[in-house]
């Protein structure tokens, strides 16, 4: 420790700076958003993410790109990123989209005679929002596989993410529609 001070160079802990992949940063940041650490409309700066995750600026930019592609944030030049808010994803419109997509997925299942034997059950008590969202996405992937419609499930997952961010108190409605 004395040698660190005398040389003026701090030794980095192994695997801290520059080691976090953009996928890991995006997943961890998404969990923070979904679990409420960053509220709808909150600004997320590149610097804050670098400091929190010990990664490079390039990793942060790629993570932002991945999250923007998923629909969780909007990136602005020189302003960092903002978590989507009710202006960008009004709950009434999001639920309308969800209902239409759920209907389309159901039609695809009927058309392909896709039958899901496992009834989906969600555990809501004491479960973090990020785990609830992951369970919904897993159910959607199962339905998409049976219906052979990955694009519909991808759009539904994006819609579920929007609901979890802008109206988390209504996510029960998403889970209930997947249980049917």
Short key terms for the protein model shown above:
single chain; 180 residues; mainly alpha; Arc Repressor Mutant, subunit A; 2 domains; three-stranded antiparallel sheet; 59% helix; elongated; disordered N terminus
Can you walk through the features of this model?
With 180 residues, the protein is mainly alpha-helical. It folds into 2 domains: 14-83, Arc Repressor Mutant, subunit A; 91-179, no CATH class. The protein is 59% helix and 6% strand. It is built from 8 helices and 3 strands; from the N terminus they run ααβααββαααα. It has helices spanning 2-7, 22-34, 46-53, 57-70, 91-111, 129-147, 150-166, 171-179; strands spanning 43-44, 73-76, 80-83. Strands 1-3-2 form a 3-stranded antiparallel β-sheet. The model is unreliable at 1-18 (pLDDT under 50).
Indicate the topology.
Blueprint: H1 2-7, H2 22-34, E1 43-44, H3 46-53, H4 57-70, E2 73-76, E3 80-83, H5 91-111, H6 129-147, H7 150-166, H8 171-179
Antiparallel strand pairs: 1-3, 2-3
Helix pairs in contact: 2-4, 5-6, 5-7, 6-7
Give the assembly state of these chains.
Answer: single chain
Count of distinct strands: 3
Low-confidence stretches: 1-18
| Binned strand content | 5-15%
Which percent bin holds the helix content?
55-70%
Number of helices: 8
List the strand order in the largest sheet. 1-3-2
Average pLDDT, all residues: 84
What is the gist of this entry?
This protein has 180 residues and is mainly alpha-helical.
């Amino acid at each position: 420790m004395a040698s660190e001070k005398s040389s003026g160079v701090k030794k980095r802990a192994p695997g801290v700076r520059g080691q976090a992949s953009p996928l890991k940063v995006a997943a961890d940041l998404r969990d923070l958003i979904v679990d409420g650490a960053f509220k709808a409309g909150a600004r997320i700066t590149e610097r804050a993410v670098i400091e929190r995750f010990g990664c490079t600026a390039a990793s942060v930019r790629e993570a932002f790109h991945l999250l923007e592609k998923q629909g969780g944030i909007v990136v602005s030049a020189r302003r960092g990123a903002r978590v989507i808010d009710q202006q960008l994803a009004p709950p009434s419109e999001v639920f309308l989209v969800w209902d239409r997509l759920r209907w389309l997925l159901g039609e695809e299942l009927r058309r392909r005679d896709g039958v899901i034997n496992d009834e989906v059950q969600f555990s809501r008590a004491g479960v973090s929002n990020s785990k609830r969202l992951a369970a919904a996405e897993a159910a959607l992937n199962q339905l998409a596989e049976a219906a052979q419609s990955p694009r519909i499930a991808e759009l539904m997952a994006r819609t579920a993410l929007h609901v979890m961010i802008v109206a988390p108190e209504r996510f029960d409605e998403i889970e209930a529609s997947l249980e049917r």
